[in-house]
Each structure stands twice: as C-alpha cells, then as structure tokens.
Amino acid sequence: MKKNIIKIIAIPLLGIIALSCSENLDFAPYNQKPPVQFFQNADDARKAVNACYGGLTGWDFFDPSTFGVSEMASGNTVKGGAASDQVVVYQFSNFTSTSTHINIGNNWRGRYNVINFCNQAITNIPNIDMDEATKKSLIAEAKFIRAWLYFDLAKTFGEVVIYDGIPEDGNYNLPKSSLADVYKFIESDLEYTIANGRTAVWDINNKGRVTSKAGLALLAKVKMYEASGANFTDDGKAINGRTWADVKATTDAVISSNFYRLFTDRGDSSFFYLFRLPYENCDESIFEMQNGSVNISYYGTNHSSACQYQWATTLNGWGFNAPSDKLITDWAARTDDTIRFRQSVAFQGLKLPDGDIVDPKGVFQAGTGSVAANPNATGNARCRFNFKAYQSRRDDKGFGGWQRLIEQNLRLFRYADVLLIDAEAEFNLGNLQEAVNSINLVRARVKATPLTTANITLQKIWDERRFELAFENDHFFDLVRTGQAATVLAPNGFKKPKNNFYPIPQTQIDISAGVLKQNKNWE
C-alpha cells in the first residue's frame, strides 16, 4: 500500500520537537518564539503544519490518557492488560481519579503541546512570502487541528485556557476562559477552515489532510454539544444560544455537498474493513490520526502504538481497553445488530482473515479487566478485544518493543457520526422522517432493522451512536452531553455535576502560582 506524505513521525524531546518526513522541525520551548531561521519559505510552512498532524500520534492521544477518560469512564470498556500494569487506570471506571492522576495530567499536557505546534504555524506562516491561497489553506489546516484539540479539552475539562497564537508579551500564565468563550473560539477556527480550506478532495499523496468540508462537519458536532448544553452546563442553558436548527443547518450543508459517503465497498464486511489499512482515509473518513512507521530507535517510534495497546495479547498486543461485560450484554440484546457486533468485538477463538486465532489460551479475569494466559482458570469470561484495533501481524514492520502494530491510522471522526448528529437534530425538531432517513443509512450498512417514524426515539438514536462509535472515545462525552450519565453511570460512582468534567491537573495549577483555578466542583 502506498503511504501518503503526511504519515508524520512525532517524537517527544522536551515535549516540543517533531520530525516531519525526513526533516527535523525543532521548536523552542513553549514560552519562547521559534528560531528565526525557520519559517522562511513555503516548504517551512508545510513542515510546520505537518508537525501539527504528527503531534496527534503521541501516546497521550491513544493510551489511558484518552481511552481512560472516555471509553472506560462510559462503562464500555475495562482496563484490560495485565492486572498489575498501570493500576491507577482502574480509577476511571469508578470515578475515583483526582487532579493528581497522571493520565489526566497527560491528557491536558499532550493536547496543549500540539496546540503549541498549531500556534507556531498560525502565528508565523502569515509572514512568509508565498502563494496566498496556499498560505491560507495551510493555516486552515492548523486551525482545524487546534479547534479539534480545544473541542476535546472542552469536553474533558470544561473551562480551559485559550492561547490564540504566540503571545507577543510572552505571557502564557493566563486564567481559564468561560465554556461559552472556548466554544466561540472553536467555532472561529472552524469558520476560518470552512472559508479558506481546500474545497476539493486531496490527491493520493495528500489524502488525510484537512479540507473545508472537514471544518463544516466538525462544526456540526460542536454545535450539537452547544445545543445540548442544558444537560451539562452550570447555568442549565444551551451554550451561546445554539439551537437544534443551527445543528440541522450545518449537517444539511455537509450531507448535501456529497463530499463524504458511508464506506460500503466490501458488502456485509464493510464495517470490518472500514478500520483496516487498505481503507485508511476513505470517503467516509473526515479526520484520522495519520500513523506510519520509521525505525528510529527502540523508543523512537512515531508513537502510534494504539493497535498494540488494545489488540490481542498473543498477537503482539497488550490487551488494554477491553470490552466490558455490560457492553457485551447490551450489544448481544440487539438481535438485529449482529454484523456490527461481531465486526467490533474480537472474541477468544476467532479465526482472523490472516489465519491467526485470537488468544486461544487466554482468559478474561472478571472484576479486574485483565487478560491472562491461564487456560485452567475457572469462573472467568472468555477474553475479548477491540476489533477496531486489529492490525494483522503480517503487516507488522517487525521493529519490536514499543514499535509493533504501529502502521494503522486511528479513525477520529467519520461521516456516520455526522448522519447520527443529523438524525438527533431532526428528531429534536420534530422531523421524524428525516431523522429516520439519516439513522437508517447507518443501520443499513450492518443490515439492522430499519426504524420507522412510529418507533424511532431519542434513546434509539443515542444507542445507535453508542454502538456505531464504540471504542472511538465518544460515548462518555455523549452520556454527559445527553444527561444520561447521572443515571447510567451512578452505580459506578458518577456524581452530577462534579463528574461532568475532569479536574484541572494540579501540576498546572501549581505552575501557574494560582492564576489557573480548579474547576469549582473539584475545589
């Protein structure tokens, strides 16, 4: 398979160094401007934006810093892996984590590190003498990635610090902004992407780069959260006055553009192949983590070991983020959703397309969420894994150590999500037929029974999101957004409003000397 040119390699060195293609891109620490010798020409501009993509392949975007605060917190998954490995991660399942939790700190730090990459590009590219349309398009890509990161931070922490470019006075010790202002900032970045981003599909060598339509699609999701604000904000109101009509207008624009389509090229197996190497950046993909493989050194991987982190323990994986008993029970009860179920969860004993068998001697240790090679254990459910993380050992580059199964992209945002956003907007506006039309497009791919205007409900739309987007780090935030978390997650220890957002990392508060304030429900 031909790899596109934005398969970026990113390695952390003082947190601020990225390697783009074969060139070094060495940014100064976050409180300094970049070296004056950089940002001289169009090639430098492209490298700077490539570094923004590359930053998304870091550990903090696929390890427990991401799946812990999302999939585990939602109850969809349990820690998995060896019982003694990273035991602090168990806290995400029972809401006992605090502001000193290492993965909460890593989540914050990792996203702000890449925001720094984006701000370096956004601040310095305008001063380069180059084609204006290309200049604006590159800035649009950086602004999309920055918007993506701030959206992630807003869902996770609520009020956060806004850095709009490199501060001229060098002052980074800023207070948090209101949630409404954070969302306004996200929308502003996306509006720039919509107005200045590439309007055509990228050529084969640039597939995966952001387009104007990607900005429009993400704006629809951002507006959905704003329109749902009454369920999770302190004032019990929609954020920035957003309405479901605003959401519908944006999803209508995405859908009518025909820029994206659901992937159905492999018939009944399409959902399985949607997440495989040959179909990266397909027509359904809106945004992906662009993973590649270069053998720099044992620790010098591109940090895209997401598949290794979550895949089967006897097939080069570590078995983390394992499907929970509750997810399995709830999914098995959906008797018309077998295709998607079996193509999302890999059970012990399954024979894979490459001939391998999933952990034939493994057992899933109920209660701990760990997987162990102990065929004589009793009273344990059969082990199972996130099938979306499957990468064949035949495609492994063989670098060893932490450089196994590192080639496959993570699908971060898909057109199926947009269709389900549209279904929810239409339902909330009373347009039941339109809601049915959108949700049934998603259900048809996996041959689930079509819904009708007589039986569609908001709960069924929410459930469709849960199972279509399982393991894609969406469900916990959906539970909070829709107000379901207070009841669904109460048995696990969730308390509203405290657990609507995670605490600001204590290390960040300490560094700020008190300028950065803790979220009020965590004080």
Quick recap:
The chain is mainly alpha-helical. Helices cover 39% and strands 8% of the residues. The chain is built from 18 helices and 10 strands.
Termini Cα gap: 52 Å
Helix proportion: 25-40%
Strand order of the largest sheet: 1-2
Low-confidence parts lasting 5 or more residues at pLDDT below 50? 1-5, 7-33, 296-301, 364-381
Structural class: mainly alpha
Q: Could you tell me the radius of gyration in angstroms?
A: 22 Å
Q: What proportion strand?
A: 5-15%
**Largest sheet geometry:** 2 strands, antiparallel
Order of helices and strands: EEHHEHHHHHHHEHEHHEEEEEHHHHHH
| Averaged pLDDT | 88
Number of helices: 18
Shape verdict = globular
By DSSP, the count of extended strands is 10
Task: Describe the 3D structure.
With about 525 residues, the protein is mainly α. It is about 40% helix and about 10% strand. The strands form 5 sheets. The protein has a two-stranded antiparallel ribbon. Strands 3-5 form a two-stranded antiparallel ribbon. It has a two-stranded antiparallel sheet with strand order 4-10. The N and C termini lie far apart (about 50 Å). About 55% of the residues are buried.
Protein traits:
globular
